[in-house]
Amino acid sequence: MCPTNSEFDKVNEYMTKLFPGEEHVCSSVDTTESEGDHVYPAEFLHTLCLSGMPPHRITLKVGMVIMLLRNFYQHNGPRYHNGSRYLIDQILLHLLVAKSVFDVNAGRTLLIPHITFCPSDNIFPFTLWRRQFP
Description:
single chain, alpha+beta, four-stranded antiparallel sheet, three-stranded antiparallel sheet, 2 helices
C-alpha cells in the first residue's frame, strides 16, 4: 500500500518497467471550458492530477493485469464492475481489448474506450475535461 498517489505512481512505473514486452504510452487529451477568453497551455493541464481522474500518461503492456476504476454497463449485456481485474490482450489507439480473469465475467472480453472525465470538485477557475482510458 502507498500513502500517496505520487508514491503509487512511482511503484507502478517501476513494476511496469520490470514487466516484459513493449511499452505503449497512452496520453490524454485535456481541454478546458471557462468564462472569457482564457487559454491554458496544454503542458500545464497535463500536470494536473485531480481526484477521480486518470493521469495524463498511462504506460501499458500487452499481458499486464489492469483493474477497472469505473463501472461499465452494456445494454442487455454483462456488467463490469469497479475493482474487477482484466488481462490486456490488445492496445489500440483509442481502445483496450481485455479479458476478465476473475469474478462472474471470467473469460469474457471487454472493450475499454477512452472516456471523458470531469472532476466533481472543481478548484480551478475553469472546468477541466480529460479524455483517457479509465
